[in-house]
Structure formats: structure tokens, C-alpha cells
Amino acid sequence: MKFSVPIGILILLAVILTGRGYYTVDETEQVVITQFGAPVGETVTEAGLHFKWPWRKATYFAKNILEWDGDPSQIPTLDKTFIWVDIFARWRIVDALRFFEKVNNEVVAHGQLDSILNAATRNMVQSHYLIESVRDSNRKMEVLAAPIEGRANPLVADVEVGRAQLMRMVLEQSEPKVKELGIELVDVRIKRINYIKDVRNKVFERMVAERKQIAEKFRSEGLGESQKVKGRTEKELKTIQAEAYRRTQEIKGKADAEAARIYADAYSKDPEFYSLVKTLALYKKLPENEIEILMTTDSEFFQYLKGIMP
């Protein structure tokens, strides 16, 4: 028994079985089919198994959102302050055929994005004041207007555009250029802004001086309150001491008066006894050391001594 099968069909089956006649597309991928380096047909975006001629090649591109992270660049602002600006972006391939023709791969696309986004960022930063790249609102900040290199502090000015709007302007300026590459910019953001080294050192010195000034202000206010409290305390203390002294004097006066009255009552009953007590008390006050006192025996000082003499 003989079978007659066209040779072309056999070759086609062999190619398919060896994997050169089909390809698979993932949900996050899109494919451009090329023949001898030139694209043919439309971009394949539907996930699944697809077939192609063996001599054609499937070139894969990402369909999801991709990352771009630029290098920091030194840019002067409108108020002549040099800063380092570091931005990042999110992008995706929306026209794979154009992307293949213009840039061919993601590495070249990153180089193109470097040029486009860095140029747009430089244009926006140079044409606006520093405050516009740093803040989004005029929310009140506790900051002093200390000079930087002989200029007023740039962070105390009013915000008219703001950081978010500045990034939208960068996005709008870059979109027409990246669209020609088959790319769509999803978002552009500032990752970090910093002064250059020389200016940064001056800013740090100014910040330290501001903090010291604020600390000195608080210390002065605290010292003033301390003096007020001490003054009130001393005043109250003197008032209390004066009142206590007045009351003790009143009590002592009343006690002395009562004692004098008692003594007077006691001594009035026997004046002779009173004279004896007073004379004996006077004897006790005589100096103990040897001294010479010249008195006559008729002196009243010896009247009680005479009675006990033999």
C-alpha cells in the first residue's frame, strides 16, 4: 500500500513540530512579526498560541507599565540656587511597530527617555523659583528668613505653581516627543531634590543658627517666667514671715504682760520676799573671776548677808 503526501506538507509539519512555526504570547507581552528584519502585519496583542511562517521571527515587547529611573542632574533655579534633581517615570509601549522601527529595544528607549525627560526637567526647573520645586501649597512653616549667600531665604516665598504642577508640565512637554517613539508616559515624579555641596553646607549652618536662635528665645522666655515665679515666691515668703513675726510678737507681748501681772500679784503680797529674790539674782550675776569691789558695810547690797553673819 502506497501513500502520496505532498513534500511541502511534510516539511510544514516538521517545522511546526520543531517549534519554528508557532509562538506563544503572554498577557504582559505583545509581539511584532518580522521577515528578514522588516516588520510584517499588525502587532499581536492577544495572549495565547499563534502560528507563523518558519522564516519569520517573533520579537517580544512588554505590554505592562515599565520603570525609568534617571540619574541626578545639577540644575540652577530661577533664583540662582543650584540643586540636584533626581526624577523617575513610568511608561509603556503603546505602538509596538513604531517602537520597533524607532528604538528597537528597551535599552535604547531608556537612552531616549534620558535625553527627553532630563531636558524637559531642566527647562521647567530653570524657569521657576526653588520654592516651586519643593512645595505644593502655602501651608505655614516655622522658618526664619536667614540669608543664603547674601539672598533672602527662598523657602519663604509664595507658591504659585507647585511641585506637582511642575511635574505635569514636564510630562506635557515630553509627551509629543515620546509619542513618536511609540511610547506613552504614564507619570513623571521627583524622587529627590537636594542642594549642591557648597550650598548645602551653608543651608545646614543657617538651619543650626535658626535652631539656636529659637532655643535662645525659649530659654529667655523660660528665664523670664522663672524670675516672675521667684519674685512672687519671695514676695509671698516675706508676707508670710512678716505675718508670723507680728503674731509671735503679739503672743510674746501678751505672755510677758501676763507674767508681769502674775509676778506683781505675787510680789505685792510680800515685798520683803520680792526684795530678797531680786538681791539673790543680783548676787548670781557677779563675775566669778577675782575682782575687787569697794563697798561700805552700810550698803543695802549686803543687808541680807548681815543677817546670816555670826
Task: Briefly note the structural class of the backbone.
Answer: alpha+beta
Q: Into which percent range does the helicity of residues fall?
A: 40-55%
Q: Which percent range describes the beta-strand content?
A: 15-25%
Q: Which stretches are low in confidence, meaning pLDDT under 50 for 5 or more residues running?
A: 144-148
Task: Evaluate the radius of gyration.
Answer: 53 Å
Shape: rod-shaped
Elements, N to C (H/E): HEEEEEEEEHHHHEHHH
The CATH level-2 architecture of the largest domain is identified as 2-Layer Sandwich
Oligomer: single chain
As for the CATH topology of the largest domain, it is Tetrahydropterin Synthase, Chain A
* H/I helix tally: 8
Question: What count of domains describes the coordinates?
Answer: 3
The overall strand count is: 9
What composes the largest sheet? 4 strands, antiparallel
By CATH, the superfamily of the largest domain comes out as Band 7 domain
- CATH top level of the largest domain is Alpha Beta
Mean model confidence by pLDDT: 81
End-to-end distance = 186 Å
Secondary structure elements and their pairing?
Blueprint lengths: L6 H12 L3 E4 L3 E7 L2 E2 L8 E4 L4 E7 L3 E4 L3 E4 L5 E12 L2 H7 L3 H21 L3 H5 L28 H17 L3 E13 L1 H73 L1 H14 L18 H4 L4
Antiparallel strand pairs: 1-4, 2-3, 2-5, 6-8, 7-8, 8-9
Description:
The chain has 310 residues and is α+β, with helices and mostly antiparallel strands. It folds into 3 domains: 56 residues, no CATH class; 130 residues, Band 7 domain (Tetrahydropterin Synthase, Chain A), CATH 3.30.479; 37 residues, no CATH class. The chain contains 8 helices and 9 strands. Strands 6, 7, 8 and 9 form a 4-stranded antiparallel sheet that branches. Strands 3-2-5 form a 3-stranded antiparallel sheet. Strand 2 and strand 3 form a beta hairpin. It is rod-shaped.
